[in-house]
Design a protein that fits this description.
Blueprint (H helix, E strand, L loop, with lengths): L2 H20 L4 H15 L8 E4 L9 E4 L3 H14 L17 E4 L2 E4 L4
Antiparallel strand pairs: 1-2, 3-4
Helix pairs in contact: 2-3
Length: 114
């Protein structure tokens, strides 16, 4: 391979690396997109339909969702986490036990702790 061809290959590899790095989402972007997924996944008629999903760091410790959507929400969370820029600032705080589940105004929510 000629020196010019090697240089072009190295430049192309560098460009691909820059494009890939710029596609990483910030934690804030991932959180906003994840919040939209949760909003689409927490409809309920009764509290018996509600469960906690565990998205993980850096999103949230837990979110109240419809039990039929739990697996999908956790799968989406893992995908968002893999796409983040890796700063993980949200991981500094430890998780606490969630409050009781509620179905309020047609949405699964965390209720107030007793």
């Amino acid at each position: 391979m000629s020196k010019r061809a090697k240089t072009m290959v190295l430049l192309l590899i560098g460009l691909v690396g820059l494009v890939g790095a710029s596609c990483a989402k910030s934690e804030d972007e991932a959180q906003e997109e994840f919040d939209a997924i949760v909003a689409e996944s927490n409809a309920c008629n009764d509290v018996s339909e509600c469960v906690y999903a565990e998205p993980g760091c850096p999103l949230q410790c837990f979110v109240a969702v419809n039990s039929a959507k739990k697996v999908d929400v956790e799968k989406e969370a893992r995908a968002f986490i893999e796409e983040t820029d890796g700063s993980e600032r949200g991981c500094l705080d430890g998780c606490t036990d969630p409050g009781p589940l509620e179905c309020t105004e047609g949405r699964c929510r965390e209720g107030a702790s007793p």
